[in-house]
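Q: Here's a chain of 232 amino acids. Please give me its 3D structure as tokens.
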Amino acid sequence: MSKIAKLFKGSSSSSSSSSSRSKHHRSRGGPSPQEAIHKLRETEEMLTKKQDYLEKRIEQELMIAKKNGTKNKRAALQALKRKKRLEQQLTQIDGTLSTIEFQREALENSHTNTEVLKNMGFAAKAMKQVHENMDVDKIDDLMQDITEQQDVAQEISEAISRPFGETFDEDELLAELAELEQEELEESMKSMGGLPSVPSSKLPTARPSQRATTKKRVEDDDDMRMLASWAT
């Protein structure tokens, strides 16, 4: 064998070995979930188109069978046979589509769950990193200091708002004022000689006949005065 042939043979063998290694590396890595889902969608679209084609072919074969039913029995039977085979293929495609759809949905759900778990793990790491700089004991001490400072601030506010000088009980002052008013009222009553006493016995009441006579007398006096004014 010539040196050129050996050279080409060595290069071809090395290239084939490198290509086989790359293929092995790709197969070992496997497709990503997005790639697998995309491939399954493409397969679904292809099978759906095949379904439409088979349905049209079945309608055509049925028309041929109807057309040659009385004229050419052999042609009608061949059309019906082709129709049966097409229907079998259509049934198989229906089952395949159901399987692919189930597989695609399961893969989509798995991919979604994987992304959710990945994000939850990322959030957990972030939370852990934040809590690493926190000490529970220091937080308790800080909250205790805040409470103490609030108490001090409250005491300062109460001390500032407290009035200066002597303080008196307002209820005692009101009671003393009421006593003074009562004394003043008693003194004024004494200076006026007191109130007139109310008679203990009932006053005599006029009888009905006396009241009528008095009323008649007053009316007669009024009439006499009116006549006197007219005469003058």
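Q: Can you summarize the key feature?
A: The first helix runs from residue 3 to 29.
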